[in-house]
Design a protein that fits this description.
Elements lengths: L2 H11 L14 E5 L2 E4 L4 E4 L2 H4 L8 H12 L12 H14 L4 E6 L2 H16 L3 E5 L8 H5 L15 E5 L14 H19 L6 E4 L15 H12 L2 E5 L24 E4 L10 E6 H4 L14 H16 L2 H22 L3 E7 L2 E6 L8 H13 L2 E2 L1 E3 L5 E4 L7 H22 L1
Parallel strand pairs: 3-13, 5-6, 5-7, 7-8, 8-9
Antiparallel strand pairs: 1-2, 2-3, 4-10, 9-10, 11-12, 12-15, 14-15
Helix pairs in contact: 3-10, 4-10, 7-8, 11-13, 12-13
Length: about 425
């Protein structure tokens, strides 16, 4: 069956709002290392990794063997009503890595569910349904997480179980304070936070939830120290800080294991998912013990923390730590940022290059500096034609997102940079 036939069947039975990349969507049928192969036999270097999820890459023996061993036991599922050894071992490891005092961990099936759980914990603990979120944020596609998403392109409804107020500081490239120095920017955003608290809330807010680097919003990076300044204000009110580490966790930013560590603060809770399972469905919350234990009703998770997912996730985390993939993310990310900034100087279709580690955004613009979603669409197609898969996002859909597996090699970094240069050059030429 051809990809066009599969596409027709897809459109007949799946929702219209289920996004697909490319004018001619592809089906990935095989993968190894950092490369994937589609059903027509074309192989690509993968620089989006299933939306940052295949963090280690594909067909990694240590991870596959751990999954096979669990499958061979015959136990794919038991539910959290029973003890699960790998769940306990993984929770112990994440609690220690979190740096959160007396931490406890709850496993879910996704980042969306992790953020829903964090909101439930915070609102229960603080006995308030008021939540602060960042402008241009994205936290998932469920009822409460859509309610705190500050990006209209991903917010399907204004209905919400929480009352949200949005804070400045998410998308610096186009916000009102963009021309300020880092110190003045942090000061202006902190003043805005205080003003939002005094004018749009009753003061007893449950939490601020924030991505240390916005993911769907276009890999936007605030100045280091922004959330430290925010936390001083939050502490005055007793407001909790939740760090959404679904995309920034596990060393992907290179300089730190968790994105929030760049700001020198320890949050009350962190949510995680994506890269932990290297493709398996797993997410979760790590939080202060008193916060985690504030739920008084009965609760379980049917599939969260199941034996297969936690076995694979434990093997993934062990591999990541033993191979210093955080260090490799820092090294390859620095090369990519330097190379992309050189490209940006040569082609004015590139308005901004930003990021940390292997989490890099390339914002594409019109000659007058306006967002150019068409240029981003064309770069997506041009890179595919040259054998590279990249992502796309941003408030205006004009940001190319680069987030390859953290096992990326020197040669692959060089290969990707050349493809990106050729693709951006082609789009620039087409604009003439």
């Amino acid at each position: 069956m051809s990809e066009s036939e599969l596409l027709a069947r897809h459109r007949a039975v799946l929702p219209n709002w289920l996004a697909l990349y490319y004018d001619e969507p592809l089906e990935i049928v095989r993968a190894q290392g950092r490369r994937v192969t589609d059903s027509s036999g074309t192989t690509y270097l993968d620089f989006f990794a299933g939306i940052l999820t295949n963090a280690i890459g594909y067909d990694v023996a240590e991870i596959s063997d751990a999954i096979r061993a669990q499958v061979d036991s015959g136990v794919l599922h038991t539910s959290t009503l029973y003890l699960i050894r790998k769940q306990v071992e993984l929770a112990e490891q994440i609690a220690e890595l979190s740096g959160i005092p007396d931490a406890k961990v709850f496993f879910t099936n996704s980042g969306t569910e992790a953020n829903e759980t964090a909101l439930m914990l915070a609102t229960q603990y603080r006995r308030s349904n008021q939540v602060l979120a960042m402008r241009n944020s994205y936290h998932g596609r469920a009822f409460a997480t859509i309610g705190i998403t500050g990006n209209r392109g991903w917010s399907a409804s204004s209905l919400s179980p929480v009352k949200v107020s949005y804070v400045q500081g998410g998308y610096r490239y186009r916000d009102a304070f963009r021309d300020l120095s880092d110190a003045d920017y942090v000061r202006a955003c902190t003043d805005d936070l205080r003003d939002v608290l005094e004018t749009t809330t009753s003061g007893d807010v449950a939490a601020l939830i924030a991505e240390p680097i916005q993911g769907v919003g276009g890999f936007n990076v605030p100045p280091d120290g922004l959330f430290a300044a925010f936390k001083e204000v939050l502490d005055e009110y007793g407001i909790l800080l939740i760090s959404d580490e679904v995309q920034t966790g596990w060393g992907r930013t290179g300089e730190h294991f968790w994105g929030i560590q760049a700001h020198g603060v320890t949050p009350d809770a962190m949510t995680f998912a994506k890269g932990l399972g290297n493709g398996l469905a797993i997410g979760g919350v790590v939080a202060r013990g008193d916060l985690m234990d504030s739920i008084t009703a009965n609760s379980i998770s049917t599939f969260g923390g199941n034996p297969v997912s936690t076995a694979g996730a434990k093997a993934t985390l062990d591999y990541l730590l033993s191979h210093d993939l955080q260090g490799n993310a820092a090294k390859q990310g620095a090369r990519l940022l330097t190379g992309l900034r050189d490209i940006a100087e040569r082609y004015d279709v590139v308005g901004d290059v930003r990021g940390k580690g292997l989490m890099i955004g390339v914002e594409l613009v019109e000659p007058d500096g306006a967002p150019s979603p068409e240029a981003a669409r064309l770069v997506l197609e041009e890179t595919r034609a040259r054998g590279l898969l990249v992502g796309k996002g941003g408030l205006h859909g004009n940001v190319i997102r680069l987030a390859p597996p953290m096992t990326l090699t020197d040669d692959e970094t060089g290969e990707a940079l050349e493809i990106l240069r050729e693709s951006i050059a082609a789009v620039q030429e087409a604009r003439k």
